[in-house]
Design goal:
Number of helices: 9
Oligomer: single chain
Distance between the termini: 74 Å
Helix content: 25-40%
CATH architecture: 3-Layer(aba) Sandwich
Structural class: alpha/beta
Order of helices and strands: HHEEHHEHEHHEEHH
Radius of gyration: 19 Å
Bound molecules: uracil
Strand order of the largest sheet: 1-3-2-4-6-5
Mean pLDDT: 79
């Protein structure tokens, strides 16, 4: 065998090995005791949450969906298009229980997202972050885009902001993270965790629309300005938050409630009171009040 042929065989073997490991949930080599990188969770976006306030359980389903209402502890729970990855850091958010068919509602969309090169964000990503949770879902949370830890793990909201979002959902709203679906306006990490640009949000919007059409939520919580831009076509979280908007999105009948992004709340904890007010509004919408 010539050197060139041997190289080709080796390259093919390596590709197969990597594909097999990805399949098994290994997307990076573990680095024992690696320190948490300082750049993690420095994004500027975001808005408030309840962070441990009392709450009531969400009520019965409002819509006429035929699938089980996710807020009633559906048995089919969560999924992330990309598996959680051990990659030198431990996600701050516990892994979700993932049934094998958890992404079935999306058809080939996760694969199309993973292959996307529609905008410049694809150049710097480790992997796309599709989103995770119950599908279909009555309640969807939309953030702005993956940060460092999301890019490494393939899961949305697994850093400090994700911890707070999880508390908002679990301690505040008394739901499980598995009961909702969490996604982002853009599926690739912007460089240095910067805010995604309007054209990047626009390039990713067809994916967001397809996700929401498959999820058929009753309520979408827009976390911060980029999510408001993607979902409502406008920004200005200070004046938009706490209001209920009918969805302007084709094929999506949900109501949209903007609130502060959790990353904003980490820097501005005084906003948590308003965020909690917004989440109570969301719960009242879900319970049909
Ligand atoms: N911030 C976001 O907007 N999305 C994530 O997934 C993580 C942090």
């Amino acid at each position: 065998m010539s050197d060139a042929e041997a190289l080709r065989v080796l390259a093919r073997a390596a590709r197969l090995l990597v594909a097999g490991e990805r399949e098994a949930g290994i997307v990076d080599l573990p680095i024992p005791n690696a320190p948490r990188p300082p750049e993690a969770e420095t994004r500027t976006g975001g808005t408030p949450s309840s962070a441990g306030s009392a709450a009531r359980d969400a009520g019965p389903a409002r819509s006429d969906r035929t699938s089980p209402a996710p807020l009633e502890r559906a048995t089919t729970t969560a999924a992330s298009a990309a598996p959680a990855a051990p990659s030198g850091f431990v996600p701050r958010v516990r892994p979700l229980v993932l049934p094998a068919n958890a992404l079935a509602a999306f058809g080939d969309l996760p694969a199309r997202v993973a292959a996307c090169v529609a905008c410049r964000l694809c150049e710097g990503r480790t992997q796309t972050v599709f989103g995770e949770g119950t599908a279909p879902a009555r309640l969807v949370f939309c953030g702005e885009g993956p940060g460092f830890e999301e890019d490494r793990s393939g899961r949305p909201f697994v850093g400090r902001a994700g911890e707070l979002l999880t508390d908002m959902i679990e301690k505040g709203m008394k739901l499980r993270r598995e009961d909702v679906f969490i996604l982002n306006a853009v599926k690739c990490r912007p460089p240095d965790n910067r805010t995604p640009a309007p054209d990047e949000i626009e390039a990713c919007r067809p994916f967001l629309l397809e996700q929401l059409a498959a999820l058929r939520p009753d309520v979408i919580v827009a976390l911060g300005n980029p999510a408001c831009r993607a979902l409502l076509g406008q920004e200005g979280i200070m004046k938009l938050r706490g209001r209920v908007f009918p969805s302007p999105l084709p094929g999506v009948a949900a109501r949209i409630v903007p609130t502060y992004h959790p990353a904003y709340l980490l820097r501005n904890p005084e906003g948590k009171r308003d965020a909690w007010t917004d989440l109570k509004l969301v719960m009242s919408l879900l319970s049909g009040d």
